[in-house]
Amino acid sequence: MDAEGPDPYPGVAAPDLIKQALLDERAGNWQEAADRFLAAKRRDLRYRGILFRVGKILYDRRNFESAEEAFERAIAFGENVEAANFYRGLIAVRRRDLPAATRFFEEAVKAAPFVSDYHYYRGETLRLDLKPKESLPHYEQAVLLARNEQDATVCHFKMRMARIEGAEGSAVSEELAKTEAAGPLSVDWLMTSAALQLRGGHVDEARQLILQAREGPAPGLFASCVNDFYFHDAAKKYPELAEALHLELDLQVPFPYQ
After folding, report:
1. Which of 19, 44, 73, 216 suits a disulfide with 14, CB 3.0-4.6 Å?
2. Whole-prediction pTM
3. What separation in angstroms does the CA of 152 have from each of 144, 149, 186, 214, 221?
4. In terms of domains, do 129 and 206 share one?
5. 91 falls in which pLDDT band (50, 70, 90)?
6. Burial of 70 (0-12, 13-18, 19+ CB in 10 A)
7. Domain finish residue from 144, 166, 182
8. Is the dihedral of CA 99, 100, 104, 110 positive or negative?
9. At what angle do helices 30-43 and 50-60 cross, to 10 degrees?
């Protein structure tokens, strides 16, 4: 927050800088908006939320280094602490600094323990860090706090994926058989079955299951399952799966593990 060099907006009061920054945002002048927001904060430290807003502007523009700095300052000023830690976690994942990401998600959970996403991404990061069994309690908590049935279903799917990765594939296979005996498999269970087939080296069988899930009645749920990094890795390993696992850009996951 230390000003460097001459004041770029001499004589402009903090409220006017905020108005100008908002107009810049609306016009898509992101850097100007960020600069004016920061100038307003320097004018009056009592303005809350500015640093987080600047961080989010920079994050959305993929300026992750500057966004990280803005989120760190936001936390220091007590602004949007839970969300700032969450975005720092996403940035740390992008850097592949998984221990740091886990810490940031933990801080987000401490600051806002009833937000499902924070528990969910904590579980995701532990799986990325090859700790699938440790991820399970966090997915379970995300289920309890899920906003809707589909979110809860995704979390249950993630738990099955973690169990498969944690050497519990046989138990998941037994659950799959019971579910299949009760009726047609839902999209998430079809994708669970595909994961088990891939685990066993049966790529063509997995492809058929993925295509069946793709044609199912829940495209959003299918996208959430395909976005799992297990299937991202599978698409790279098995080129014959690339088309079946392809998603349009607007359905691709924001979690930056690629």
Report:
1. 44
2. 0.86
3. 8, 5, 14, 20, 11
4. no
5. very high
6. buried
7. 144
8. positive
9. 160
